[in-house]
Write a structure and sequence with these properties.
Number of helices of chain A: 9
Family (chain A): Belongs to the ABC transporter superfamily.
Number of strands of chain B: 2
Mean pLDDT of chain A: 91
Strand order of the largest sheet of chain B: 1-2
Oligomer: heterodimer
GO biological process, one term (chain A): L-amino acid transport
Number of helices of chain B: 11
Structural class of chain A: alpha/beta
GO molecular function (chain A): ATP binding; ATP hydrolysis activity; branched-chain amino acid transmembrane transporter activity
Order of helices and strands of chain A: EEEHEEHEHHHHEHEHEEH
CATH topology of the largest domain in chain A: Rossmann fold
Shape of chain B: globular
CATH architecture of the largest domain in chain A: 3-Layer(aba) Sandwich
Radius of gyration of chain B: 19 Å
Number of strands of chain A: 10
InterPro entries (chain A): AAA+_ATPase, ABC_transporter-like_ATP-bd, ABC_transporter-like_CS, BCAA_Transport_ATP-bd_LivF, P-loop_NTPase
Shape of chain A: globular
Strand order of the largest sheet of chain A: 6-7-8-3-9-10
Mean pLDDT of chain B: 92
Structural class of chain B: mainly alpha
Organism (chain A): Deinococcus phoenicis
Largest sheet of chain A: 6 strands, mixed
Number of domains of chain A: 2
Helix content of chain B: over 70%
Helix content of chain A: 25-40%
Strand content of chain A: 25-35%
Order of helices and strands of chain B: HHHHEEHHHHHHH
Largest interface: A-B, 26 and 18 residues
CATH architecture of chain B: Orthogonal Bundle
Strand content of chain B: under 5%
Chain lengths: ~250, ~300
């Protein structure tokens, strides 16, 4: 790799959050699903959102990305207010979202999928994507839907890196995948983290989340009820498991 | 029936098919991306023919410049209508869009009728084909008007070009992605709304172009699109709503079948297309080339 190693430190102060979410409320039709969520991500930081199904983790990602528009509160990224922006303009500011269903487009080939997001400075080119996951080169001309679940997840992640995001919103990347694939995806995320990419990771797999994240926000019923730093995880493992158990 | 008559009917059918193909292709492209059926399509086809006529009257423009300009004018008008009116109905029940585009059809037809009567004192006007395409070509087995061969050829080229752009280019990849999953495509940083407007413009531009092509054959009059569009909708149903390949193949095939059928048994001329449609609906409700809803 020719790019020099980038340290997590950025020109902005280490303490100024890259993303700040304040009093976020979100709605699906009549139902009120997020109740005043507050969270922040500092530059180069990986935070996880953990909690049971339906606790509001995915909704939080969609609200930040502007995919879900019926929401109130304030979302600030890099000093700019994102709250009123449509998702295409949120993406242009440097956020990228990998949805839980991965959203590999079946009417596009693997290569067309990879090249769909607009290329921006600092983004991954085709070569780098192929280097990270050679299978994507071999399958380049296949329809996106013909990939295995693990390959789809890899494609979904490297696809959005084409736009060189500063913050990656990842929704359950380990879900339904074989341990060896989960390991590889974890390796890649660790590598991206070393290069200074900030990540919000939605996970139910505690082992995967604790391997990568600096902090964990615990979601219950559309609210953040607890915040656990990586160095507290061992001591509070029982609490975390209780939050996650069904 | 002798072979020569049959061949003439096949060629006449291909000419009709060229119009069905261009119109149903536009409908298919629009339906794919906007999920709306554009009932205004026939009126915009007529508007293409009328614009060519009016450009000739007002500026002395001939066929060739009008063949370029009139579709662009129709496309721009379509894009304005999409932005100002159609876009407000997305996500609502499709019948709202039907009412809107049907109303716009009536409005367009009557406006053109008024303009033709008041400005040019005609209810229908002939349109001269270009000198280069006047006369006939001897194909060996049959003599056929040069202009009609040109219509078949240009329609084929445009259908092929549209298919190529949609299936093989980056623009096409964006259109396919926006069709399949607009939400995630937008989240990649692509302004899907702008592409929707552009695709609508191209779709109705094809209708406008078909109108210009039709003017020398059928002459220009305010209701020239209404009958054609009914057959075109039957073609769209037979081919499968939203299928690019389906609309082109079915357009030409229906044109030929209807013309040959009419030669064999004249009373069936006007109903053959609808008999075909009924049969296809019985056997394959989603059309010959369509995927059942939900499997896209």
């Amino acid at each position: 790799m020719t790019a020099p190693a980038v340290s997590p430190a950025r020109p902005t102060s280490q303490n100024a959050p890259l993303l700040e979410v304040r009093d976020l409320n979100a709605f699906y039709g009549q139902s009120h699903v997020l109740h005043g969520v507050n969270l922040h991500v500092r530059p180069g930081e990986v935070v996880s959102l953990i909690g049971r199904n339906g606790a509001g983790k995915t909704t939080t990602l969609k609200s930040i990305m502007g995919v879900l528009r019926s929401r109130t509160g304030q979302i600030t990224f890099d000093g700019q207010d994102l709250t009123r922006l449509p998702s295409n303009r949120v993406a242009a500011r440097g956020l990228a979202w990998v949805p839980e269903e991965r959203a590999i487009l079946s009417s596009l080939t693997v290569r067309e999928n990879l090249e769909l997001p607009p290329a921006r400075p600092g983004g991954w080119n085709l070569e780098r994507a192929y280097e990270a996951f050679p299978v994507l080169r071999e399958r380049g001309h296949h329809p996106g839907s013909k990939l295995s679940g693990g390959e789809q997840q890899m494609l979904a992640i490297v696809r959005v890196l084409r736009s060189g995001p500063k913050l990656l919103l990842l929704d359950e990347p380990s879900e339904g995948l074989a341990p060896v694939i989960v390991q590889r995806i974890g390796d890649m995320l660790a590598e991206l983290r070393r290069e200074g990419l900030s990540v919000i990771l939605v996970e139910q797999n505690l082992k995967f989340a604790t391997r990568l994240a600096d902090r964990h926000y615990v979601f219950v019923d559309g609210q953040v009820v607890d915040e656990v730093r990586a160095d507290e995880v061992e001591a509070r493992r029982a609490d975390l498991l209780r939050y996650l158990s069904v | 029936m002798n072979t020569q008559l049959l061949l003439i009917q096949v060629f006449n059918g291909l000419v009709n098919g060229a119009f069905y193909a261009l119109l149903s292709l536009g409908l298919a492209v629009i339906f794919g991306m906007l999920r709306i059926v554009n009932f205004m399509h026939g009126a915009l086809y007529m508007l293409g023919a009328f614009t060519a006529f009016a450009l000739g009257q007002a500026f002395g423009l001939g066929f060739w410049p009008s063949l370029i300009l009139a579709p662009i004018i129709v496309a721009l008008l379509g894009m304005v209508l999409e932005r100002t009116l159609l876009s407000r109905l997305y996500g609502l029940d499709p019948s709202y869009n039907l009412l809107l585009t049907f109303g716009l059809t009536l409005l367009t037809q009557d406006l053109v009728k008024q303009v033709m009567l008041s400005q040019y004192a005609v209810s229908s006007a002939p349109y001269t084909p270009p000198a280069a395409l006047a006369g006939v070509v001897n194909l060996g087995f049959v003599v056929f008007p040069k202009y009609r061969l040109f219509v078949i050829a240009l329609s084929l080229v445009l259908c092929l070009l549209t298919w190529f752009v949609i299936e093989k280019t980056r623009v096409g990849a964006i259109i396919r992605a926006s069709t399949e999953n607009p939400g995630v495509t937008r989240a990649f940083g692509i302004d899907v709304g702008k592409w929707v407007t552009g695709v609508f413009g191209v779709g109705v531009g094809l209708a406008g172009l078909a109108g210009v092509l039709a003017a020398p054959i059928y002459s220009v009059e305010p209701y020239m699109g209404s009958e054609l569009i009914i057959t075109t909708f039957a073609v769209v149903v037979i081919g499968g709503l939203g299928s690019i390949l389906g609309s082109v193949v079915t357009g030409f095939a229906v044109g030929v079948l209807a013309a040959v059928g009419a030669a064999i048994y004249p009373p069936i001329a006007n109903t053959l297309v609808f008999i075909l449609m009924a049969l296809v609906l019985l056997v394959r409700p989603s059309g010959l080339f369509g995927l059942p809803e939900g499997t896209r």
